[in-house]
């Protein structure tokens, strides 16, 4: 149940025309040859299902749309930073959209911002030595170990109790048969 995330993204998809291409090249050292621009969520699904990309990187709203349509076969993996506060709306095709999104991401993902969150808000900054560690809310087999031990113990006690009851019933019936046959 632990998600398997590639240690490196030899082939990664991103939303064509977005700032993510430069972000992935700078943040994850992915070469331009290993990046594949994708335009629609259908292209995301095709690329992931045929193995032409290992992962698709996109902004959270677009990932949510993708998962709403194909969620049974895919999952999102983070850390995903959701910032509360001001929101902005732009018209479709606005030339400001890419530059504005890139500027917001540079501020919210900067080392200074992460340090401020750590110092002033008590956030834990992820350790860079394990970049693909599962999110704390992820479930794995270890999450169910207590439940597993409880169920196994309960089953063993139920089997032992059942066997003892059957033997007592058989012993009582054989004593009754012996008493009846001796009279």
The main β sheet shows up as: 3 strands, parallel
Query: Rounded to an integer, what's the Rg over CA atoms?
Result: 29 Å
Instruction: Classify the secondary structure makeup into a structural class.
Output: mainly alpha
Number of strands: 3
Question: Residue share in helices?
Answer: 40-55%
* Unreliable sequence segments: 128-136
Terminal-residue CA separation: 66 Å
Mean pLDDT: 75
- Total domains: 2
Could you tell me the strand content as a percent range? Answer: 5-15%
Query: Looking across the biggest beta sheet, what order are the strands in?
Result: 2-1-3
**Given the C-alpha coordinates, what overall shape results?**
elongated
Give the helix tally: 6
Briefly characterize the structure:
The protein is mostly helical and 183 residues long. Helix content is 50%, strand content 6%.
Itemize the secondary structure elements and their pairings.
Layout (H helix, E strand, L loop, with lengths): L11 E4 L4 H9 L6 E4 L2 H9 L5 E3 L2 H11 L25 H13 L2 H11 L23 H38 L1
Parallel strand pairs: 1-2, 1-3
Keywords: Membrane, Transmembrane, Transmembrane helix
InterPro entries: Ionotropic_Glu_rcpt (IPR015683)
């Amino acid at each position: 149940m632990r998600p398997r995330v590639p240690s490196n993204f030899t082939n990664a998809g991103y939303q064509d025309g977005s700032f993510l291409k430069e972000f992935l090249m700078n943040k994850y050292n992915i070469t331009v040859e290993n990046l594949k621009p994708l335009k629609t969520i259908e292209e995301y699904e095709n690329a992931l299902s045929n193995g032409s990309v290992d992962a698709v990187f996109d902004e959270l709203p677009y990932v949510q749309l993708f998962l709403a349509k194909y969620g049974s076969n895919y999952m999102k993996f983070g850390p995903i930073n959701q910032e509360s506060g001001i929101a902005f709306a732009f018209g479709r095709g606005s030339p400001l959209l890419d530059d504005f999104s890139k500027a917001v991401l540079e501020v919210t993902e900067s080392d200074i911002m992460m340090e401020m969150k750590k110092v002033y808000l008590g956030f834990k900054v992820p350790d860079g030595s394990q970049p693909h560690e599962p999110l704390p809310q992820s479930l794995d087999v270890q999450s169910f170990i207590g439940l597993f031990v409880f169920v196994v113990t309960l089953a063993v006690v139920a089997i032992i109790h059942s066997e003892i009851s059957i033997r007592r019933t058989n012993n009582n019936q054989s004593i009754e048969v012996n008493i009846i046959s001796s009279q």
